[in-house]
Amino acid sequence: MKTKAAVAWKAGSPLTIEEVDLEGPRAGEVLVEVKATGICHTDYYTLSGADPEGLFPAILGHEGAGVVVDVGPGVASVAKGDHVIPLYTPECRQCKFCLSRKTNLCQAIRTTQGKGLMPDGSSRFSIGGKPLLHYMGTSTFSNYIVVPEIAVAKVRSDAPFDKICYIGCGVTTGIGAVVFTAKVEAGANVVVFGLGGIGLNVIQGARMVGADKIIGVDLNPGREAMARKFGMTHFVNPTEVDNVVDHIVQLTGGGADYSFECIGNTKVMRQALECCHKGWGQSIIIGVAEAGAEISTRPFQLVTGREWKGSAFGGARGRTDVPRIVDWYMDGKINIDDLITHTLRLDQINEGFDLMKRGESIRSVVMY
Ligand code: NAD
Ligand code: AHE
Ligand code: ZN
C-alpha cells in the first residue's frame, strides 16, 4: 500500500513529505493507521546526527496513537479496530528481561529495532524501490506503520488520539520516572532539571504522589508559569544563582531526596547528582546525551550515599502500564491538554522542530 510520511533523508536536513510504499503485516505483526504523533526532543536528537543509532534515510517519530487496520497471521492480543499506542519499548512478557520483573527494557526485538529494521531483518518502507529505515520500531511520522504485536498497547477507544499520543513517550517517561523508577514517596523533596515536554511530566508526577517541595530548574524563564501550574513550588534559573548545587541544598535543607535530569546535558547530570541529600538522595537520568558524552563526579558522592540511576520510558511496561496511564488521563488525574501547545498538519512538521528548538513549544502534535 501507499502511505504519506515525513522522510528524514540525512542528518541535519528538514524532513520532506513523500508518498511511501509500505508492505503489509507478516506473522505476529499489525498494520496501524497512525492518527496523531507528538514530536519529542529525541526525534530532534536523532535528526541532528548526534545519535549513534541514527541511520538514514529513515522515517522518525515514536510518540503516536492510532487504530489497527489489519493483522498478520497468529496475532491474538489485538484485532482490527482496536485503538493502540505503538511502543518503542515493547513488552513480550517472555524474554529474560521481561521475566526478571526488574526492568521494563524488553530485549525481544531490540537488536533489529536499533538497526531500523523489523524483527525479521527487513524494512517495510520503500520509495522508488529503495528501502527506507524504520526508527525506534515505531516511525510514527508515517500515516501507516507495520509493527510487531508486542510493540502496541491496546487502549480504550474513547480517548482522543491527539492527546494520548503523548503517552507514547513524554507523559509516560516523566510520570513513570517518578512512579516506577524512583518510586517517590509523599513528602519527598524533588528537583527537576529541564522543564520541557519530559520535565513538566516529572513535575506533575511528583505532585500526583504528594511530594513536598518540587523545585524546577530551567534556563528559559518562560517555563516558570507552566511548571507552577503543574505543581512546581520553586523555580531556579541557573543564570541567576551563584552555584545551583549550593542553592538547592540550601532550599531543601540538606539536599533533594530525588532529582531528575530531563535535558541530556552531562554537566547538569553532575549537578543533579550533587544536589541530592547525603546518605539517600537519588538522581535519575532521563535526558539523552550525544554520542561520546560521559558523566563524571567524585566517587565520594556515591560513597556517601547518593545514587545515580537511569530511566527509559519511565520504567513503564508498555502493554501493562500504558493503558492505565490513558485511564489516569481520562479520569482527570493527569493533565495532558495544556502541555500540547501546538497542533500541526504533517506538512508543517518541520515547524514543530523549529518551535522546539526556539523553546516556544512544550509539545507539538501532528494530526493526520
Ligand atoms: P525539551 O526540548 O522539550 O526540553 C528541554 C528543556 O531543558 C527546555 O525547557 C530547555 O530550556 C531546558 N534546558 C536546556 N539546557 C538547559 C540547561 N543547561 N539548564 C537548565 N535547563 C536547560 O525536551 P524534552 O522532550 O523534554 O526531552 C528532554 C530530554 O529527555 C531529551 O534529552 C530527550 O532526548 C530525553 N528523553 C528521554 C527519554 C527516556 O526514556 N529516557 C524519553 C523522552 C525524552
Ligand atoms: N539511540 C540512542 C539512545 C536513545 C535512548 O536512550 N532512548 C531512550 C528513549 S528516548 C525516547 O524519547 C530509551 O528508551 N533507551 C533505551 C534503549 O534501549 O534504547 C543512543 O544514544 O544510542
Ligand atoms: Zn521521546
Automatic annotation (TrEMBL):
CDD domains: alcohol_DH_class_III (cd08300). PROSITE patterns: ADH_ZINC. The keyword Oxidoreductase applies. Keywords: Metal-binding, NAD, Oxidoreductase, Zinc. The keyword Metal-binding applies. It holds the Pfam family ADH_N. This is S-(hydroxymethyl)glutathione dehydrogenase. It comes from Noviherbaspirillum galbum.
